[in-house]
Amino acid sequence: MLLSNKLLYSLLICSLLYLSSTSGREESSWMKLVDIADSLQKERRFTESFQHWEKAYRLAKNETDSVKNWLLFKTLYAKGVSHNYEKEGIPYFEKAHPLLLYSRLDTSEQSTFFNTYYHFLGYNNRWDEALPLAHECAKLRASLNEDPPLAYLSAIHDVAFINNKIGNYPEAIEYYQQSIDGYIKYNGPMDHDVALGYNNIAFNYGLVGMSNKQYEYYLKASEIWSSIELADNSYLMMIYGSLLRWQKQYGDVVAMEGLLAKIREVVDSKSKGWGSQNRLIQNKNDYENPALLLSYWKSCLDYHLLKKDVQGIQNYLDSTSRFIRNLPKKPNDEVLEYWNNAYSVLGEVNADMGNHVEAIRSFRSGLSQMGQYGYGGALEHSHAKLAKSLMATGQLDEAGKQLQEAFSKNKNRANLPSFHTLSAELAEKRHQPDSVRYHVRKTLASLIGNDELTNDFTQLTSSSFSGRVNRNYIASLSANGHHLLRLYRNANLTDDLQNANHLFTLALDMLNIYYLGGPYTDVLADMQTAIHFGLLECQTLMQQEDTSSLAVLFEKLENNRSQHRWKKFIKHAPSNSATVPDSLRDAEEEQRQLIVFYKQQLANVEKDSLQGKRANQWRAKIHTCEVALASLEEQILALNDRYMLLSQGMVTTRTLQKELPKHVSMLRYMLTDSGAYVIRIDRSSLKLFSLGKTDVLEPLVREATAQLRARSPDYYATATKLHASLLGSDVLNGLHRNLIIVPDGMLHQFPFEALTDTAAPSGFLLHDHTISYATSPSLWLAQRGLRHNRTRSFVAFAPTYAGVAGDERSATPLRLSGATNEAETIAKMLDGYVYQQNHFGKQDFLKEAPHYSLLHLAMHADVQEDDSEHSNFHFGDGSKLYAYELYGMKLQANMAVLSACNTGYGTFQKGEGVQSLATAFTYAGVPSLVMGLWSLPDASTSGIMVDYYRQLIDRKHKHTALATAKTNYLKRVAHESELQHPFYWAGLVVSGDIEPIHSQSSLWYWVVAVGTVLLLLIVFGIRLRKQARTNKILTN
After folding, report:
1. Which SMART domains does the record cross-reference, listed alphabetically (predicted)?
2. Edge to edge, what strands does the sheet with 880-882 contain?
């Protein structure tokens, strides 16, 4: 029995020893597999790593739960990662996440797990689930207190990105700014990640409707990326594309051309791995990513849309279609979005040109293609644009269906204002006034983010929009104002009129914020003219006789206009402010010289189709210099006291009335798309007059101008009708003799003094009023009374041209006898100098002109209507002085007389007025100009010019001197009816400062001084006589 017990005990011990050795062998096996799996995972061989983790997990089935959970976590983690961000990997992360407690990962490794997990979710559009994981990742990274905390900043950047995807745009901006602040602290401001943050902030500002902020941050990103060495220069292409699309909304064709040239430069110089390291591309699996090429084509499409180039757009659509159909695998939504955009652009350009049938076909084709390919992206804009074209063709029911589709598919609240505005338009066409008012209210509610908005819109203020400003918001406010204005005309409800007026005012305020201060674009001008018409019409309909409301309106309208010309003038005008630092002046001059050089090079190659690549390079350089120059000019202007005064206070009615001389009336004409108006201003009164419809007035102006230039005897009858339209009895009543005309639109090309009310030469306005012109009240205020101090007085440039004599100062360089005699005569009168040798050229002008206070150009000029910058003066040596070269000069003249053809004629640019050679002299700082509106007749012009200077020497004001010279001419030809035609004398007009060329103050100083001396002599003589009499009496 004892033996049996001992035997059993021995067998038990042996069994335990056997089991122990077996367990040791199993543990040894799975631990070896763990080591292998770890090594494979570090080499990113995730599929093989997963296989080893899985085997290790199976072998460790007898281990503790803690060990098994650890191995299971590692197995699931590896399996998930092996799916390379495809959706199939997500379930493994979902199962692994609860096991993180057993993962044995340190804090850094846990944050990596979360980072990978939320990236998987994000790349598969599960952003809501990704956000808390990103926050957890950032929290873990923050706890590590790393220096530098680049991984933490990257996680914060990702939190911002995910907020954007969810639609939390303000939160996205906040987190992007946090990441930027950190990157700047540790890497400095010129850093790639800083630029990436700026780019993404810009994108989100656009989504919340803050367009100017969007532009500001895109520029910041562009400045950095264009200044640093990039591992992947596709970033540059994408930021230039973003800026280009912003400029498309703003309407700046010139800026778009420069940006497109830069994009082409980047594309032409792309590296082999182009786009492979671009973190802005969502699809990480495509090495050669199709989105890059399609993004480039999208930029080209945007440019051709603004140029209204239908064929160019069709070509890019065809290329996009072929490219996407030939892709090796089914295109994703990111790629399909570019295709849909191409169809949309083609529809949009056709709609803009009034070809709505073709527009409808394009929109429907795009929607059909997207349906066939299963596109899951945004189509609401396509439905809305289709609805607009359907409305234009009278298909109202179908338009309503498409608008319903737009609302149902919309995921962005920022789209609601434009959709409700379209709905209001549809309701108006259906004669449903209550529905119109409903959608107007819904538009405003969506703009301010308050669905409880009442029907009293006058309670809204600019602050109600919380800083949101963009083109669509402005257009919505204006369009809905017009809806209400038309309702008022039909129903005569005062609330509609008051609400309409208030919406126009809000739209104007928003447009002022949106405007960047440079040249006006067609887009800005179109919005402006619609708003101005609304405000002027409301003012007329309200029948307000008090001048206070009109004074406020006048200020709003004037301060809403382009500041470009007067800012250019002010920068070159005399100033009492502190000296501008040499470094700024030198930098500005360098940029100007580069721009002139690059434009000259561009002119040499752009007409050669084989030089397209070279032309793009010059355009890109010009754009870079112009951006730099604009920044420098703003810095210089900030140091100018007169600029700061005008820019801060802008134009006020009180200031303008105070500055107007006695017995002077200013007539400010305003031609909107729908109605024409004039505001009459003098020192004590302000009145608004409606001139009827613009489409009635403009043909009359056009006809009179053509007849005037052609010396047609029919001109007098037309001019009489035009006189009645522009200067009706109401306008003339109380009008002072001296007039300052501020024209608008095509009125810039017409001389008012040539108007007649008698259908005959005897009734010219010249006989009753002395006229000068101003580009705008703000520029007139800036120009008035300015004086450059130059030691040299007068210089004339009257080149001697080879060939036969000509009778007009045209673009043809024929010999001008009258111009030569004119210059010589005037130079003798003013003790000046004449440059007339045929070897004298442009370079001599550039060198000598800045030293004189009076410039006189009696020569040929050539106006380029298609490109005003290339309008030019002809010199005797064959050289040409281009307008863009004058832009960069700082002339010191108090007056420039451009006694040449068409110097005041040029391309009319919406919002800016006429872009002429005279404009270039204004940019160069000349406060007073005499210019020609057509090809001036040499003989009569010469006589008028000599007489004009004779009157100036007699200290007459400039406008009075020119009017007197013209009147004297008419007296000389009183018996020659043909020569009395305004063609011979009305082509010269004076604009800007009208003060005498010699200071009146100095004249009065001498009069007072001499008078005082004479008085003292008389008093002294009387005393001497009295003294003599007294002495005589005493002697006697």
Report:
1. TPR
2. 861-862, 872-874, 880-882
